[in-house]
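Entry for the shared binder. Reason: the reviewer on the internal report wants the predicted structure included alongside the sequence.
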Amino acid sequence: MALFDLPLPELERYLPDLEEPADLDEFWAGTLAETRRFDLDVRRTPHDAGLTLVDVEDVTFAGFGGHPVKAWVTRPAGSATDGSSLPAVVEFLGYGGGRGRPHERLAWAAAGYVHLLMDTRGQGSRWGSGGDTPDPVGSGPHVPGVMTSGILDPADHYYRRLFTDGVRAVEAVRALPGVDPARVTVTGGSQGGGMTLAVAGLVDDLVAVMPDVPFLCHVPRAIALTDANPYHEIVTYLAVHRDHKAAALRTLSYLDGVHLGRRATAPTLFSVALRDPICPPSTVYAAYNHYGKLAGTRPDRSIEVYEFNEHEGGGGFQVDAQLRWLAGVLAR
């Protein structure tokens, strides 16, 4: 993929005007209050993954609507019972993926963190090793995928449920033994990066935020700029439902990572790939440049730029950067 978006100097200055719904905060406060009427109901089952240096638990907690959400929790062996109080990393997954197998993501536990990898309701069958969390909520007519599921009303949209699950994942990890609740970080790539920004805007006492090539940002520009799915699901829908544009864009404005990320208060490390056809660079920079603008004190921000990469972004190089950056944040 050739360079197709704005030149880097323009990206670094890119700060688009936003059409943020006036009742955004009220909408999300009501959503979370409704969900918190359900007990968090964290259930932990030891899981024999054949690993000796890492302990694994199969964890379930109550997400949106009290629906059960699965997660893997991995941590240094013995740290749940030895009096440790470890920092935790909550990770969200990319579009179509599920939590897979616990041995597939060991970097954070190996680095001394408690790692909660949240399964993604209704997904987990497009790549990876599968998911285990159903989405029991139905939808009106929509394009295959989740982008247009509930597209005519933010109260019905799929991502209202998934973002709420993400907030509850932070609450669940804080309820685990051996976790320091004051040192919780959220991270994820692509869809998981968009979720990271959403949760950062909805939870105001995180220690750090690490969105990697985030999806679900500056959605109106994204659907105008790329023909790639998942954004193209919206275009496909509107090509059929020609009179639904206003309602669809209104719904998506409640879910946009740019709008929610403006409310974040924790320091952040982003990544962007300048040849990314799925999450165009200007949509990532819109989120980065607006990040934390509504916080009382603007949080520290930094971004890793991968000039020659597409949606894979930095891959293992970005994990290296995250490990070093987060250690520095915690040391401060």
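Summary line for the report: The CA atoms of residues 11 and 282 lie 6 Å apart.
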